[in-house]
Amino acid sequence: TIADPYLRYQQLRSEDPVHWHEGLGTWVLTRYSDVLAALRDQRLSADRMASLTARLPEPVQEEIRPLTQVFGDMMLMSDPPDHTRLRGLANKAFTPRVIDRMRSRIQANVDELMEEVANDGRHGRSDIVAGLAYPLPAIVIAEMLGVAPADRDQFKKWSDDLAAFLGGTRMLAETV
Fold first, then answer.
1. Are the beta carbons of 17 and 31 closer than 8 angstroms?
2. How far, CA to CA in Å, does 175 sit from each of 12, 137, 170?
3. Based on the number of CB atoms within 10 Å of its own CB, is 106 exposed (0-12), middle (13-18) or buried (19 or more)?
């Protein structure tokens, strides 16, 4: 279950590490070595839009074609050479110098989130994944993009919606 998926992950790693998920129509790899091998396998593709839309009726596919074309142009949905070009551009935003300049702001975000986690802990059980690991990347990326703090919640919601649409880990954890 989503509340505590780790037992299920452990079971998959030990009993079914290369798991076919019927609902998602995809393979779920649960061991690091298998994921690494898949990432390096030139026969596999990152273009998930084709497999996502293939299960839809043709009229629906046609209706959402503009959306699938936008997603198809994203780095995470592309194969080399497009992926390589886009990754090179993205890497410029994450150079050690850029990250070092952000270090104090990232630390302030971590401190703020950890204070909230600690306060939650005083009122019951705190969850460091939900309170720190889950929101921190979106906060840092929002700041890098110049998103105002008042708009962070909306930015995070859009990010979560996008991840759910693309079969992100939350959706996967709920359905594995």
1. yes
2. 13, 24, 9
3. middle
CB 27 within 8 A of CB 20: yes
| pTM recorded for the entire structure | 0.63
* Three-state SS at 19: strand
Length of the chain measured in residues: 176
How far apart (Å, rounded) are the C-alpha atoms in residues 76 and 56? 22
Cα separation, 157 vs 112, in Å, equals 20
Burial class (CB in 10 A: 0-12, 13-18, 19+), 142: buried
Six-digit token string for 159:
């990010």
18: β partners: 29
Q: Which amino acid is it at 111?
A: D
List pLDDT tens digits, range 101-137: 999 999 999 999 999 999 887 777 778 888 999 899 9
